[in-house]
């Protein structure tokens, strides 16, 4: 796995942010939640300009170069709109491991509603987009898919998810 970081995306309510925070607390990562406060986490570590450039150009070289200058590895989590699937390909091409946290729609919907916040219509729209683009998502992430929720709807712990990621990425 890259010492420069990790990118995590996936189904809503599967533990992306929780995993990022856990990696920061337990493994020394800098956690960037790309959805928090209009990119405040990018501002906090001084790489928002490089992120915006990446999104605009579709090339991750300057962003990854900025990551490499940071004192610790970075985990970015983003429940991105599917139109940004190119972000995953570009990061992967630059050597940043990319992972998808997966769950069945019905199970994830219950978890999403239970945590409160945005309503079920928001979840349904995101899932409709994901299902429409699923063949592309699957092609881009390949075998880098990990279940974020158990079949009964309970959340897998970040430690369990991390163990699965490390199992697939020797050296961690």
How does this structure look, described?
- The protein is of the alpha/beta class.
- It has a single domain, classed as Rossmann fold, CATH 3.40.50.
- It has helices spanning 16-27, 40-45, 48-57, 61-69, 85-93, 105-115, 120-132, 134-141, 158-168, and strands at 5-10, 30-33, 74-77, 98-102, 145-147.
- It has a five-stranded parallel sheet.
- The protein is globular and about 40 Å long.
- The protein starts with a strand and ends with a helix.
- 34% of the residues are buried.
What is the secondary structure topology, with strand pairs?
Layout: E1 5-10, H1 16-27, E2 30-33, H2 40-45, H3 48-57, H4 61-69, E3 74-77, H5 85-93, E4 98-102, H6 105-115, H7 120-132, H8 134-141, E5 145-147, H9 158-168
Parallel strand pairs: 1-3, 1-4, 2-3, 4-5
* Overall pLDDT score: 93
Using the coordinates shown, work out and report the CATH topology.
Rossmann fold
Secondary-structure element series: EHEHHHEHEHHHEH
The CATH architecture would be: 3-Layer(aba) Sandwich
User: Helical proportion?
Assistant: 40-55%
Sheet of most strands: 5 strands, parallel
What's the CATH H-level homologous superfamily?
P-loop containing nucleotide triphosphate hydrolases
Q: How many helices in DSSP terms?
A: 9
Widest β-sheet, arrangement of strands: 2-3-1-4-5
Span between termini: 7 Å
Which residues form runs of ≥5 with pLDDT under 50? Answer: none
Nearest-angstrom radius of gyration? 15 Å
Shape label: globular
Category from helices, strands and their pairing? alpha/beta
The CATH class is identified as: Alpha Beta
Number of domains: 1
Q: How many beta-strand segments? A: 5
Portion in strands: 5-15%
């Amino acid at each position: 796995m890259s010492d420069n970081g990790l990118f995590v995306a996936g189904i809503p309510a599967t533990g992306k942010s929780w995993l990022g925070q856990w990696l920061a607390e337990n493994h020394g990562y800098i956690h960037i939640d790309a959805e928090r406060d209009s990119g405040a986490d990018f501002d906090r570590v001084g790489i928002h300009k490089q992120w915006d450039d990446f999104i605009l150009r579709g090339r991750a070289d300057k962003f990854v170069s900025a990551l490499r200058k940071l004192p610790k590895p970075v985990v970015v989590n983003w429940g991105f709109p599917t139109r940004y699937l190119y972000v995953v390909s570009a990061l992967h091409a630059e050597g940043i491991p990319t992972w998808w946290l997966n769950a069945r729609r019905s199970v994830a919907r219950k978890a999403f509603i239970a945590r409160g916040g945005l309503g079920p219509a928001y979840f349904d729209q995101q899932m409709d987009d994901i299902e429409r683009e699923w063949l592309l998502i699957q092609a881009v992430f390949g075998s880098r898919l990990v279940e974020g929720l158990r079949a009964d709807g309970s959340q897998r712990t970040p430690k369990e998810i991390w163990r699965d990621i490390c199992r697939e990425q020797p050296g961690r």
